[in-house]
Amino acid sequence: MNALDLAAPPSGTIAAPLPEPPHSAGRRQLVALAGQLVAGVGNLLVSVALARLLLPGEYAAFTAFLGAYVLLHTVASSVTAATALDPTLGRRLLGAGAGAGVAVGAALVLAAPWLAPVAGVSADTVRLLGAAAPSAPLLALARGRLYGLHRVGGTAATLVAEPLVRAGLGLGLLPILGPVGAAAGVVAAGYAALLVAVVSGRGAPTGLAPTLGARRSAAVAGAFLLVAVIAAQDVIIANSVLGDHDAGIVAAVATVGGAAYFATATVPMVLMPSTDTGPAARGSLRAALLAAAGVSLAVLAAVALLPAEGYALALGDDYAEVADYAPAYVAAMAALGVGKVFLARLCMLGRSALATVVVAVAVADQLVLLLRAETVRDIVLATAAGCAVLLVGSALAVAWATRADHRRLAEETDRALTTAPAAEPTSTEPTSTEPTSTEPTSTGPDATHRARRSRLVTLLPLWIALAVGVVLRMVVTRSIWLDEAISIRQAQLPLGEMLTDLQENDVHPPGFDLVLWAVVHGTGSTAEWVVRLPSLVAGALLVPVFYAMAADLWDRRTARVAAFVAAIAPVAVWYGQEARMYALWMLFATLAVWMQLRVLRSAEAGGRGGLLSWAGFVVAAAATMYLQWFAALPLVVQHLVFLATALRRRTRRTWWPWLLSVAATLALLAPMARFLVNQGRSVIEAGAGTTPGQTGAEASAVGGANPDVYAVLANLVWTVWGYHADEVMIQVSALWPVLLLVTLAALGRGRSRAVTVMLLVAVVPAAVLFAIGFERRQLFELRYFTATVPLLLLLVSRAVATWARGPVTRVVLPGALMASLAVGLVDEQVNQSNPRTYDFRAGVEWIADRGEDGDVVVYAPEFLDDELTYYSPGLPTMPTGRLDVEQTDLGLEQGTDPAQRPGSVFVFGSFLEEEATAGQLGEALARLEEAGWVEVEEHHVANVTVWEFQQPDEQPDEQRETTR
Amino acid sequence: MSPGSTTREHEILGRPSTRRTRLVVACALTAAVWYFGWLLMPGRVGNPWLYGTLVAAELFNLTQAIGFWWTLLHDRPAGRTAPPLEGARVDVLVPRYDEGVEVVEPVILAASRLRGAEVTVHLLDDGDDPAMAALAARHGARYVTREQHDGAKAGNINHALRRLEGEAGGDYVLVLDCDHVPHPDLLVRTLGHFAQPDVAFVQTPQYYANADQSPVAAAAWAQQALFFGCIARGKDDLGAMFCCGTNVVFRRAALDGVGGFPQHSVTEDFELSLVLHQRGWRSAYVPEVLVQGLGPADMASYVSQQLRWARGCLSAVGRAARARLHWRVKAQYLLSSMYFLSGWTLLVYVSLPIVRVLTGEQAVAAATADSFLLHFAPYFLLAITTVAMGGAGSYTFAAFALAAASFWIHVLATLQTLTRRRGRFVVTPKDGAELWQPRAVLPGLAICAGLLGPAVWGLTRSTDAAMLNNVAFCLLHLVVIGTGVSWALRPDRLARRAAAGLPSGDSRWRAAGGLDALDGAASAERRLVSAP
């Protein structure tokens, strides 16, 4: 979080709100949002202007002040939420708030000489902070009251007042007082906002009854206070654990990322004074969720589309790398924004203590990660993790609380109906004037609303799973992989050239490349997130497809489990983050099997399968073939299943539809025939036989030269729990007796057509590739039977959802699976020993940081060329094979100014476990040393090593060092 | 259910599938050769004692497995059903010891309404309970009691048979346990087999109607379903089906010819079958659920039942080995009686990882886990597959866990047999006490503790692959045995299940209209036909 949040303090409520139509809630949200957005943009512009006008150190100091100021206001504004629920708190807490503000202010002013050096800011800045202190609680209470009274116009006005004063006064004082002037502007803006809030709240109705007790008020305040901690503590901690430059980057990232948080700040506050039951509540919640999600995504899109040059232009050249972190940070803030809505809902449902617990867990999670952070990336990831925990936790808590609330209401109704004495049949007059809007009825609009609510609650797990799935796929930690780099290079070619290149130099069908080509040419960008977007979308879509398929084939409980499994399954997440075809393959393979099972179900019932199901099967099956040639294996199995079905007397009616589906599939694949022939010819001419020439195909293969049992186990572990370091894989594989237990547990569980077909489609291709693996070892690898992944995950979901029958095991078993998947996911993504993690980006960044004009990069193996083109170090590059041993200078001057000798030679190596590559690199290093170059530093990142060589006269005086 | 309906029959007992069975058995045999060829190589000997124990256990289980597969290959679809026998007279003997009226009355009532023969019901009361005399009188049954209550159930039946000798008794005798309610068509479906003059008895399955009410009964029924499904059909095809003590119709002449039930054994039925087969009589099996009984509803009941069976069958091993029978029949008797030694093998399997964790000693040497798994996994998977196929899905993990948790019963029964400690006939309790019964599973609990302790200790010492593998084995056994043991520690679950549903067998019969004949009968039978 960041400076901009000081305008966020939420608040306001009406004591006894009357039921209101949903459009009223939507309108209020829109007005408040408009005010907030104007304020946000204004604050952003002011901050951007300050970033450009101040030196990085000064800006960092100002940001630290702003962070402290925001912390002050957010501490105080924690009462805003409670006041929004009960506007009478505005007056009840006025004296205490003012007193506390003055006390804190006085303490800060007095302690300024001691605090300033600790915080790394000037004493004047601390004093200004003290001056701002009294405004904080008063502004929080005033704004909360406005929210509670539904004074959205006043709310918008007080929000807009802040940036106006900041800009006018702060920027005006900047030339005179420097950063202190800017800080003074911020303080003045707070008081101005307070004035507007007080004026806007005048004339409110009197006689409102208090609705919140002290304990609940404290819990609500506590929950929102902790939310603010999540948004603020990263900047503060980064300032102490990182160097100036990185801290400045974090501050800039937080400034940009705070836009999303800021934009949604009013949403929960506007929601809270709404009625907490009935259709109006549902309308309010829906409006709030839509508002929060819509605004967050809009901000995310805007931030993500901004290239690095844009950040440099806006924040200054020192902040260009903000582009690397901003999307992830903004996504985290977006999650936080949506999470706040759920927290507000929890408070409305009287579960404020639970809300506090949820946020506390998220804060703790973030804090632990922050304290271990060493880089900007670590800080961003810590905040993302905290926000994700908050979002998921609060959503689950709302689902639970809503259901519990619903059950309680139903029980109370039942009790009332059971115990109510029979009314006098003649007495039709109402005996009470109390509102009856919350009483359940079985017909009419309430019934409709109840049905809608029921649907909402029913689908809530899906939405949560989807959100989790999207967030996890967006938090990408690894750099562009070799195969991705190849695809990206190809996608930048004109279409015809790309297809020719694919036919001549590649081994895959063109489906994914065509999608990527459209994305790259449509956006004009090859940024990481852009090229990975198709996979992200496909990976995210897998979640609802899992849900729908499981609900269709089995039941809703399985569907819920399946959706969460799809969301967090490590391999599904991994390929959802990779600019390759595997995520799309998983998606279409799943759809193809689903459609086939629908056809088979219909056939068993005497039907022909249904046009839609057949069409869906044909299209999905053909799509898989456009993505991967190995998709032919599961497709053949599927058609054999159809053939067996058509040959059975009972299901013979599927014969002609099946033949038609074969014809239709072949027709759809026909355009690829020529492509296939040409590519096949190229591969054979190149002497590669039928083996895909994928780079790094043997990466992380556990096992020997031939497929063995451990290779099977390894692929099984990869399928469910993702890719891990070899040591971890060996340990996990040692747990194979668990499989015996699973086998025993499967006894008597019965069989079904769906399970049998899915097992066949999942296992047979893998078995075929296992057999082929004795000839071509690298083909027995999960990537070539990726269609197995979703099917196996669905089967696991089914087993977990149904095998447990006791009330405890029904919770424990799915929970244990999810926990194990989460652990697998974290290890897969974070553990740098993962042999599939190649941090080319960091390696190149290291060179870029140290290199100077005239330096040269030598690399091996040769197929790193696309990687070094994508992550250009800004220096000439050449493979080690081009070192000319006949020349004394080894030919290093090639491509550079002949008159200028390279100052440094960087040797960039990877795949060192491969004998040939290690040999190439070893020879290159030896040649350099023979030519008089001296190694001055060696840098290691995941699976990448960079050596820096200099001529003796170029060496710095300091001792050679080795960093790792 | 309509007793003639084979569809119904197979829904309960599983459907034989000859071609698929042959294929899987062939694969399983191949896998067994593959595994034992690897295991028995001289270089595999690790610690000689452990290795010897392991090989002994594995060979014993292989023998049982091959016996099972052999039986499975003889599980063929039933041929033509035998036509009913006209004009037969049947004495229905219902021995009773201490069961209550509510248990016995439905049996007497249903027995008195059996169709297809002239039926005389005898309530053989070893409890000398006047209420039973009244019950018999109420339903027109004969009340039989005796002065000396020797020989337990066998003595009770023999006493009744001797009394019938002096009367103009029937040609056939139906024996029903006093908690086993017969279907009205029981005799219609069974008597036809006596058209073959050398058939001594016709056995029908035992079915636990309370399988839906207790997890223990459900697991016990799953075990029974495997036996009365593929195994009993296979034994029948091999001419080796033995009498199971209830739901069985005897030719009176055959019974008289061997002097009635042997009274020296706690498994008088098994011994009687052995004697009859030795005398050249044949047996028949009707694989249709025609009688519904009550299975052990809690662990104490189950332990009591299993201990009696194990004790009786193990004591018959010697006689079976010495019996002059066709080799196939003898082999089947030996396989059945020696099954109750299999608890020893589980003890071996459980001990090996514990010993490995605690001492580092292991049975097999010169073998990587990869190699072991490559050879063992196919054998294990195919063996399990044959069980799953044989049971047609009726054999569950719960049944396996219950059997595993009862390993100590086999050990105890063996020791009792070896020390010639005299067994005592204990009536299997019919109504679960639904109490916390840790004593009934104390050895199982001890083994669980014995697995958990070393597993935790091992993990504190090392987390290398070898240690993790052995800890995983410990946990595997722990989960299996723990599951079986757990039902003795969760009485509330038993109580919930008991209150949950109908006896499934009753509901099937009701759906098939089989109980129509009982409609309107005494309130006691409402246990069987209560509407949901």
Characterization of the model:
- The complex is a heterodimer of chains A (964) and B (532).
- Helix content of chain A is 69%, strand content 3%.
- Residues 1-23, 420-443, 689-702 and 959-964 of chain A have low confidence and may be disordered.
- Chain A folds into three domains: 3-406, no CATH class; 474-830, no CATH class; 840-963, Rossmann fold, CATH 3.40.50.
- In chain A, 53% of the residues are buried.
- Chain A starts with 21 loop residues before the first helix and ends with a strand.
- Chain A has a six-stranded mixed β-sheet, with helices on both faces.
- In chain A, strand 1 (856-860), helix 37 (865-870) and strand 2 (877-879) form a beta-alpha-beta unit.
- Chain B folds into two domains: 6-76 and 339-491, no CATH class; 89-298, Spore Coat Polysaccharide Biosynthesis Protein SpsA, Chain A (Alpha-Beta Complex).
- Chain B has 22 helices and nine strands.
- Chain B has a seven-stranded mixed β-sheet with strand order 3-2-1-4-7-6-8, with helices on both faces. A two-stranded antiparallel sheet of chain B has the order 5-9.
- In chain B, helix 4 links the parallel strand 1 (89-96) and strand 2.
- Classes of the chains: A mainly alpha (964), B alpha/beta (532).
- Chains A and B meet through helix 31 and helix 32 of A and helix 15, helix 16 and helix 19 of B.
> Could you say which structural class the secondary elements and strand pairing of chain A correspond to?
mainly alpha
- Average pLDDT, all residues of chain B: 84
Shape of chain B: globular
Total beta-strand segments of chain B: 9
How many domains, in number, for the residues of chain B?
A: 2
Report the count of strand segments of chain A. Answer: 6
Structural class of chain B: alpha/beta
Number of distinct helices of chain B: 22
Strand content of chain B: 5-15%
Largest sheet of chain A: 6 strands, mixed
Provide the β-strand percentage band of chain A. under 5%
The end-to-end span of chain A amounts to 31 Å
Radius of gyration of chain B: 24 Å
| Model regions low in confidence, pLDDT < 50 over at least 5 residues of chain A | 1-23, 420-443, 689-702, 959-964
Major beta-sheet overview of chain B: 7 strands, mixed
> Distance between the terminal alpha carbons of chain B, to the nearest Å?
18 Å
